Amino acid sequence: MKLLEKIKNKEAVVGIIGLGYVGLPLGLEFALKGFKVLGFDVDESKIPLLKAGKTYIKHISSEKIKNAVDLGNFDATTDFSRLPEVDAIIICVPTPLNEHRDPDMTYIVNTAKTIKKYLRKGQLITLESTTYPGTTTEILQPLFENAEQNNGEKFIVGEDFYLAFSPEREDPNNPNFSTATIPKVVGGVTKNCIDVSVALYDFVIVKTVPVSSPAVAEATKLLENIYRSVNIALVNELKMVFNKMGIDVWEVIEAAKTKPFGFNAFYPGPGLGGHCIPIDPFYLTWKAREFEISTKFIELAGEINTFQPQYVVERTMYILNKYQKALNGSKLLLLGAAYKKDIDDMRESPSLKLIELYKENGAEVVYNDPYVPKLPKTRKYNYEKTSIELTKENLSEFDAVVLSTDHSDYDYKFIAENAKIIIDTRNAFEKAGIKQDNIFKA
């Protein structure tokens, strides 16, 4: 195969569609390993930044982008008519849920239709966006096989073009694993498809894991995130149960994880965040209905996790009441807006839901986050809020401080010394060695 030879010689040009938390680091890995990379994105504001070697994602350094640009291996554009220039097209676009918790396939479908317009023989298309089993062969394959060019010729998968699914496994700011060091599952439609896609990823990923079909690869990603969702739901439920019993769930987890087998520690929190765990399980729930199967376990876990912001608000009401205060009319400071510690990623952050619920109950809410100076507009929320400074005066003026995201940058001792009431959803203060009567867990 001509494409296989181009990949082996690093002559293949890699195209990345979607330069966000998944696409940008992947594109940089290819560029720094010697491949020419052309990134595509509909957001025009990203392009000049990337061309200048600058970042817009905290945990991806400008230095890394600049190195790729200076090598002459990385470029970015909003012009999708340049798709014929690339040999491999890797799709890294969002796959959200709609208001009914059904998959919103708009980004994948629109991207596929754009690729269809420019598809040429010999190209590889790999989908990395998390989706339900069957997406690659049910949506993408028919679209591309019917990609009639000017001469009316149809393309055959595995011969005229190659198609695969390889789920992203990004964990932003993970100190132990990065794009290149996380093994990659790859499922091709045909043997030729798997051979080409594995050859490409082998250059930048520590280990590729070929599977028998795209559907298996799609299902693998869902299993990984459903596993986390269900286990997080379990500890979230135990948190609520144990609290009623006067038992500290964090202490229980620490004791349980001393068992050297049969137990993996998961931790409760104010709700699920990030693009994967709050969303991906419902892709399988939706697809299972086609086969008249009810995914009770998955849906129950989703209900428990979705309820957590409400539980934090109810705990806040209870705690304020102990101090003869009502939530209605209280001034609250929310610590942390990102969905996890030490990053600026706001996707599905439970902090946004907390702000909504507190406001609905009459509280005035401001926030601090060292990585999020201004709350961005999301698909659901558009708050006009900017991060306030954590001074002694600012901390002392609030009726309660609610810790939602346990950033390492926070001076927990300073906060504890100056806040009237602290509601800790992450057990961060105790982990910092601080125990006070005005610190409550939620």
Report what the structure shows.
By secondary structure, the chain is an alpha/beta fold. The protein folds into 2 domains: 2-212, Rossmann fold (3-Layer(aba) Sandwich), CATH 3.40.50; 260-441, NAD(P)-binding Rossmann-like Domain (Rossmann fold, 3-Layer(aba) Sandwich). The protein has helices spanning 2-8, 23-32, 46-51, 62-70, 106-118, 135-145, 191-202, 214-245, 249-256, 280-289, 296-322, 350-360, 392-396, 412-418, 428-431; strands at residues 13-17, 36-40, 74-77, 88-91, 124-127, 162-165, 184-188, 208-211, 331-335, 364-368, 400-403, 422-424, 439-441. The protein has an 8-stranded mixed sheet, with helices on both faces. Strands 10-9-11-12-13 form a 5-stranded parallel sheet, with helices on one face. Strand 1, helix 2 (23-32) and strand 2 (36-40) form a beta-alpha-beta unit. Helix 1 runs parallel beside helix 7 (191-202) and helix 5 packs parallel to helix 6. The longest helix has 32 residues, at 214-245. It starts with a helix and ends with a strand. The mean pLDDT is 94.
